[in-house]
Amino acid sequence: MFACAAVAGAAERLITFERNDFVWIAKLDGTAEKKMAAGIFPAVSPDATRLAFTTVEKSGTSYSRHIAALDIGSGDVKVFQDVPSANVYYPSWSPDGKRILFTLRRDEVWDLATVAPDGTEFKVIKKGEPNKVTLYSPCWARDGGSIFCQDMTNIYQIGLDGRELATWPIHKIIPNGDMSGDGRIDVSPDGKRLLLSIDMGEEAKRKNWDGPLPALWTFEIATQKAVRITPKSLFGWDGCWTDEQNVLFLSQPATEKEASIYRMPIVGQNPKRLIKNAHWVGVNAP
């Protein structure tokens, strides 16, 4: 007699990124680049079978932005027309792949909301409030029970019922640092650290660079200890974890006109360029 069991293999690891207003995918080592669809802010599902992204449709001088889901195998795209807004951004998959988190504007404020991967079951997590700063950069905690976001002054952990679970003032955890509305947050695979894209109050000392010096920091939630992982000579932003010891991020050398995707250990040494001419980088969790 004998027994056999089917064991599900680990999901393929994929990088996703923007280039020239299209969303792309590539293997984790940066090879096999493939253009998938017109759109921005792509996010690959945990099982690497789907992309969520933002579509952009122009009508005259106005734009409509919707969340869409693309089947990587077939290329089929479904636009979530039933989400009650035509101004939607920043999709993020829940760790179990059953919900997509995003921001949307309606009634003159920005809300944080989720939806099922087929575009149904719309639910608001945190309603925006008039005369308060927008909550940016939403991403999931690794246990799927809460989210992280920021308002350029504080970083928040928020429950799925909208309650604030924790608050960290940015100026206290990052000396001489700030976050803009584009400041990215990503949670480490073990859920214990955040990777933060920070605008430093330092002189960039680079010709033709307009803006603050971008840097990547890790923030340990339990100890509230922050560590800068990019030196002043390395401009890094839009970081995300590939595993506990390595990150992907965007950087633009002084001699180049476009950003590229790099991989680097969190000890901040020997960054390796994987993909040229890219914007916004993401990867599915290990």
What topology does this entry show?
Elements: E1 14-19, E2 22-27, E3 34-38, E4 40-44, E5 50-59, E6 62-71, E7 77-79, E8 88-93, E9 100-106, E10 109-115, E11 123-126, E12 136-140, E13 146-150, E14 154-159, E15 164-169, H1 170-173, E16 177-178, E17 185-187, E18 193-200, E19 213-220, E20 225-228, E21 237-243, E22 246-251, E23 260-265, E24 272-275, E25 279-283
Antiparallel strand pairs: 1-2, 1-25, 2-3, 4-5, 5-6, 6-7, 8-9, 9-10, 10-11, 12-13, 13-14, 14-15, 16-18, 17-18, 18-19, 19-20, 21-22, 22-23, 23-24
Structure description:
This protein is mainly β and 286 residues long. 1% of the residues lie in helices and 50% in strands. A hairpin with a 6-residue loop joins strand 23 (260-265) and strand 24. It is globular, with a radius of gyration of 19 Å. Residues 1-8 have low confidence and may be disordered.
End-to-end Cα distance? 36 Å
Instruction: Average the pLDDT over all residues and give the rounded result.
Output: 94
Helix content: under 10%
What is the H/E order?
EEEEEEEEEEEEEEEHEEEEEEEEEE
Q: Strand percentage, roughly?
A: over 45%
**Based on the structure, what is the oligomeric state of the protein chains?**
single chain
Instruction: Say how many strands there are.
Output: 25
Low-confidence stretches: 1-8
Radius of gyration, Cα only, in angstroms? 19 Å
Major beta sheet summary: 5 strands, antiparallel
Q: Helix/strand-derived class?
A: mainly beta
Task: Assign an overall shape.
Answer: globular
Please give the count of helices: 1
